[in-house]
Here is the input.
Amino acid sequence: MPFFRIRSLLLAGSLALAASACVTINIYFPAAAAEKAADRIIDEVWQTHENQPPQAAPAEQGAGQ
Amino acid sequence: MAARIAARCCWLVLLALAWVLPVQGIERIRLSIGDIRAPGLSVQGVELQFAAGSKGPELRIAHLALGERAWRGLHLSCPEADAAFPEIRCRRGEIRVGAKRLPLRIDFRFDPLTSAFDAALRLSSGSTVDIRHDGGNLVEVVLTRFEIGELSGDLAGFAAQVSPALAAELAQYAAKGTVDARLAWRQAGDAGPHEKLQLQARLSGGSFSSPDGLQAAEGLALSLDLTARALAAGWDWQGRLAWEGGEAYLHPLYLRSGPVLQAEGRLNDDELVLRMATLKLEGVDQFALTARIAREPPSLQDLTLSLAGGDLAILGPHWITPALVPALADRLRFAGHVGAGAEIRDGQLLSLDLVFDGAGVSLAGVDEGGEVRGRGLAFGPLSGHLPWSATAPTRASLQVQGGYWEALSLGAFDVDALLDGGQIAFGQIRIPLLDGALVLDGLALEHGAEGWRGQGGVVVEPLSMALLTEALGWPSMSGILSASMPGMRVSTGEISLDGALVVSVFDGYLQATGLRVSEPFGVASNLRADIEARHLDLAQLTDTFSFGSISGYVDADVKGLELAGWRPVAFDLRLASSPGSYRRRISQRAVQNIGALGGGGAIAALQRGVLSVFDTFGYRELGFHCVLVNGICEMNGIAGRGRPDGGFPIVRGGGIPALDVIGYNRRVDWQELVDRLQRVIENNAAPELH
Amino acid sequence: MNARHGVPGWMRWLMAGLLGCMMAFAVQAQGNLEIDTPAISALKSSMQKRHGQLAPLYASGAIGLAADGSIALRDASAVPLAQRGSVNALVAAENADRSALYREVARANQHPEWEADVRSTFAQRWIDRAPAGWWVQRGGSWVKK
Here is the structure.
């Protein structure tokens, strides 16, 4: 009888472990990607262009032609 | 308030003087008075000195405390004085506090025989305070051009006596304004058994602002008429307060002058009771209320109000939209009339009753850019009763005489609902629509922290497509539209419908499932669905859209259809000839139109060539596949029939004469395609002249 | 299939479960979030249009960027009295769009339950990206950047 009890405990424990391991599994919120997405949207809404080329560039091109 | 404190203070001093000066034949008086204490006032070490022929009477007060403020060593002296028996007169008197002279002059006249007293304080700002005591029971205080800002310290001190919480609030509101007031205070006596107070006050150029500007007023003009009578239970008062000028922002309401409050009630140490009050307000015929307001801390305990003849066209934009749905201020419109009753007990809303009479509400449509556009959604005129109670479920009943949703007119319908706290359970709502109806079954909504959510079922009783297409201004189609969607779920920002919407049209049917409406009332409103169409008769279809003539049947599957502003923005459309045996012919015009959609010039050659002698061609199958993403239609033809040269057949010929239509451009701008289709349809619909 | 010999049935289930779990661990969203949907575009353009009206209000301190990803009317005294109501409506409309945006971003990526995470990520980025002079909410109080 004691054997069965231990076994059932083991079973319950393993299942609980497995279950808890499984519970933590979901697709993590991709924080870095979300930040990138937020920045893109913020750029558009606020019309901020951090990588805007310097103002002089088109003028030089124009002069070269 | 300022008037009251001045009155109270002077009254006590005068009273003190009156008691100690009942003497005649004054040559020289020197009086010392003990301490005077009253709520909010403490006077210690009062000494009055008067000698005939000397430079004038002098009054010294060792310590005066008024509210939170205290002064030491007050000294009143009169440079111009005379004692024309029995009066003592003082002109251009000065008051010093310690070594500092206050910026005011005082003229006074005092008759020790009758105790009559008359004093005028002239402040350097130009404002004056006149205090008159008739020696009997009457004290009058007149304030002329009295600046509130100047005395704000004293005001706060006084307010602290009334209510420390109120004072703390008040101290933050930089209140300004000019007060003209006349206060008459009659002690109980021969004229009447009760102490009486009469106040007429006018505030002009008033303003205040909380630090965050959410509670503020400018250019305020108020006039107050108040009479009060002291009884054992407190002051019985009645008065009229009129807001005669200026504007105020009491978050989130912007209000303008106009309202007049007429009220009567009682004031005692614990509370202010409005027994009966009426408020004259723009857009309301009658507005009556009663209230009980606790004084410390100031809080609304009980309130009952009743409103009759409320004009929703005025109340809507001024009160309802800002308070309930400010985000929709530009789009929401109201009409008709409302009556209302509400009851608050111990600070909690107990019941609310609304009665609508010919009321209407409309929400204008909005395009993707957020601009107001289209007819939107409207209900009305509607009438009925909407009671709500915190303690028991109530039954609401509204009769809606009609409405519209964009181009569709809605018929008359009734709404019955059981309201229980934050839950609403609707009875069946059957909204007539064309020759059918939209039926909402067992709709139940619940208001929680995240807004409204709920569920129910939707049934569309059969509508004729002929009427629907006519109403929408589409090419006329015959057929029937119906829907049974028993699983409708409503949550913040989304309505999803389980079940199917079925349109029997063009001899076949079209079935939409997985319908989901996101952000139904916002700019991002979109509709998603999967559509399955079977056995559509191409002859009817092409005829309807004036697209030449094709005989035969097609099946179509549209997966992941997404409409924004009723325009498709994403889908995966697969169109193929229906299985079975039937006549398959395609007219030359249809071929040309298909070619025109492709934008190619190849068709022109076809027209001039040998094939132009034939009117129709046989075909074996039709197939078309378009995946719309980001405005680009990724095209393909008949499944599994791609050609080595990159072309894809859309029509595979068969019979005599046979003709293949092959596409080569796999990426087509969707808008371009729609424009071409529109042109093709227009050109075909127009009468042709040769 | 006799449970008495070999691996007991429950053990096999457990193994399979654990293996499944281990494999599932490897699943982690990577790359970019989908933000090119028509709904998000519509919200962006609506917000972009509104920004023209909001920008001077950010600069004057009348409104600020709140810690919860919304905007708030924090000092209405910077706005003429008669316009405070319409500024409040503007703030409410912007917040309605922002809430819809956070929902739509989560929805567009097939994870509606990410809404709160999307909101807090945006909240942080709005605040971090705000130009100097704007007011932002940090630790419950308003600070000027």
About this structure: Residues 1-187 of chain B form one domain. The first strand of chain B starts at residue 28 and ends at 33. Residues 1-25 of chain B have pLDDT under 50 and may be disordered. Residues 2-20 of chain B form the longest helix (19 residues).
